[in-house]
């Protein structure tokens, strides 16, 4: 895991680098805004530690650059008299701050906490839910009430089209467009009917009276309210 540390006090920077590397982190150190911006442009980081006061500017500038380029956690390192100003940093998208002088163990604890929150948030972005159906798009798996449902690639793709358009009525043409020629298979109107029937048999409590994939007569299909 790669961390960008921007801190103009070389003694503090060196001590933090050693402690973070002992925890298994790969640390890139910069001592000013200019070199920090260059590092952000040339590398992909998992987290930024930014000193608020730097010789050629402030951590705010780097926070803005980082936020424009990456969706990663940002922690400010601030002096006591700067603490009131950190609110602006939090409003800009920083995730946390720690006031100098601080204990290294406390900083490492903050880092781990912020990373856990981010990882959990990233996971949630890849989870789609339709009633008791849960779709994990990271591993392309579908679960019903916690139990995995085995879908073919085309069935999965079709269910994904529904999930990504929850609440919208989708015509048969739109559905065909969404799954056409996936994995080299041509899907026609009749095949679509068969696939929807198969999906309902796998995810609906009562496939004859579907509650998830509903037929909207004369228009198409809809999931959700």
From TrEMBL:
OmpR/PhoB-type domain sequence ranges: 125-225
Keywords: DNA-binding, Phosphoprotein, Transcription, Transcription regulation, Two-component regulatory system
Keyword Cytoplasm: no
GO molecular function: phosphorelay response regulator activity; transcription cis-regulatory region binding
Residue spans binding DNA: 125-225
Keyword DNA-binding: yes
SUPFAM superfamilies tied to this protein: C-terminal effector domain of the bipartite response regulators, CheY-like
GO BP term, example: regulation of DNA-templated transcription
PROSITE patterns cross-referenced by the UniProt entry: OMPR_PHOB (PS51755), RESPONSE_REGULATORY (PS50110)
Modified positions (4-aspartylphosphate) in chain numbering: 51
Function: May play the central regulatory role in sporulation. It may be an element of the effector pathway responsible for the activation of sporulation genes in response to nutritional stress. Spo0A may act in concert with spo0H (a sigma factor) to control the expression of some genes that are critical to the sporulation process.
The name this protein goes by in its record: Stage 0 sporulation protein A homolog
Species of origin: Defluviitalea raffinosedens
């Amino acid at each position: 895991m790669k961390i960008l540390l921007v801190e103009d006090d070389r003694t503090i920077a060196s001590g933090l680098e050693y402690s973070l590397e002992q925890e298994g982190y790969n640390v890139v150190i910069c001592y000013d805004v200019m070199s920090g911006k260059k590092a952000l442009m040339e590398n992909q980081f998992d987290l930024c530690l930014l000193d608020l006061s730097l010789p050629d500017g402030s951590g705010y500038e780097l926070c803005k650059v980082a936020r424009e380029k990456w969706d990663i956690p940002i922690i400010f390192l601030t002096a006591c008299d700067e603490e009131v100003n950190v609110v602006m940093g939090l409003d800009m998208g920083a995730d946390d701050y720690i006031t100098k002088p601080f204990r290294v163990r406390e900083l490492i604890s903050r880092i781990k906490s912020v990373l856990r929150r981010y990882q959990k948030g990233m996971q949630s972005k890849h989870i789609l839910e339709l009633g008791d159906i849960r779709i994990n798009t990271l591993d392309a798996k579908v679960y019903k009430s916690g139990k995995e449902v085995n879908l073919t690639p085309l069935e999965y793709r079709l269910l994904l089209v529904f999930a990504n358009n929850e609440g919208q009525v989708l015509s048969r043409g739109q559905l065909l467009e969404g799954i056409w020629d996936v994995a080299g298979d041509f899907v026609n109107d009749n095949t679509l009917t068969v696939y929807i029937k198969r999906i309902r048999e796998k995810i609906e409590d009562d496939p004859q009276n579907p509650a998830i994939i509903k037929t909207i007569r004369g228009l198409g299909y809809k999931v959700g309210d």
